[in-house]
Write a structure and sequence with these properties.
This protein folds into 2 domains: 65 residues, Winged helix-like DNA-binding domain superfamily/Winged helix DNA-binding domain (Arc Repressor Mutant, subunit A), CATH 1.10.10.10; 103 residues, Arc Repressor Mutant, subunit A (Orthogonal Bundle). Helix content is 41%, strand content 13%. The strands form 3 sheets. A 3-stranded antiparallel sheet has the order 3-5-4. Helix 3 packs across helix 5, helix 4 packs across helix 5 and helix 7 packs across helix 9. The longest helix is centred in the middle third of the chain and has 14 residues.
Length: 239
């Protein structure tokens, strides 16, 4: 380092610190994809939701998104979100990704026909469900929301361990609590259930024959009503 490098430069004008602070306060609210600042006018301009944008958003999301969240992020109404979801669902039918719908939530997942190849990569085919887990899973899938007590009445055996095991594998989730006395927990299927069984929505569950459907009926269960305050898919007044 030379002696010249040690010599401080000329002092700036007295108002320099104030000018720097003012410029820092004027940091743009957003930055475009090319790195250029977005002006306040551009940020406030009406936005739109394209099919490409929706697909990208769902791809980077680390969890299922609700229609309300998508509408808020895109600055559009719910009807626009529903329309773009419908467009994207049709587009993805011939590709390796599918759109999963569960209540108000949406997510991307691999196509069922690619399941074997994907399973060999992630090792998912090594995880098998026991007969007890499959039986409990079926009861929850067709009867949700359902309490553990109702599951046990239908199966005739204690199901605490089986339910906890399904929750650990993220096939079953807590949907909220019943309005019945004691407010027992209500269980239902998760997105991982749809992925595991190659479904895009619960509407694709096979229709049960009369004999099997009769076995799922629990006349003593009066706890299957979800408390509205606990409903994760309940729309607010501004939805």
């Amino acid at each position: 380092m030379t002696d010249d490098a040690m010599i401080p430069g000329p002092a700036g004008p007295p108002e320099f610190p104030t000018a720097v602070a003012a410029s820092m306060d004027a940091t743009p609210a957003a930055v475009a994809a090319d790195g250029n600042a977005i002006t306040a006018e551009e940020a406030a301009a009406p936005r739109e939701l394209t099919e490409t944008g929706l697909e990208a958003l769902l791809f980077v999301a680390e969890r299922p998104l609700t229609r309300r969240e998508i509408a808020t992020l895109a600055g559009v109404d719910r009807l626009t979100v529903d329309a773009r979801l419908g467009d994207l669902e049709v587009t993805l039918r011939s590709r390796g990704i599918r759109l999963l719908l569960s209540g108000d939530r949406v997510e991307l997942a691999t196509a069922p026909e690619a399941g074997g190849l994907v399973a060999r990569y992630v090792g998912a085919d090594a995880v098998r469900l026991s007969p007890a887990s499959l039986e409990t899973m079926a009861i929850i899938a067709y009867r949700q929301p359902i309490t553990k007590a109702a599951i046990e009445r239908i199966r005739g055996v204690d199901s605490d361990y089986t339910v906890r095991s399904l929750m650990h594998r993220r096939l079953v989730v807590e949907l909220g609590r019943s309005e019945a006395p004691g407010r027992p927990i209500l269980y239902g299927t998760a997105f991982d259930f749809l992925e595991r069984f190659g479904l895009t929505s619960l509407d694709e569950l096979p229709v049960l024959d009369a004999e099997v459907a009769a076995r799922l009926v629990d006349p003593g269960d009066v706890t299957g009503t979800l408390d509205p305050d606990d409903d994760p898919d309940r729309d607010g007044p501004n939805a």
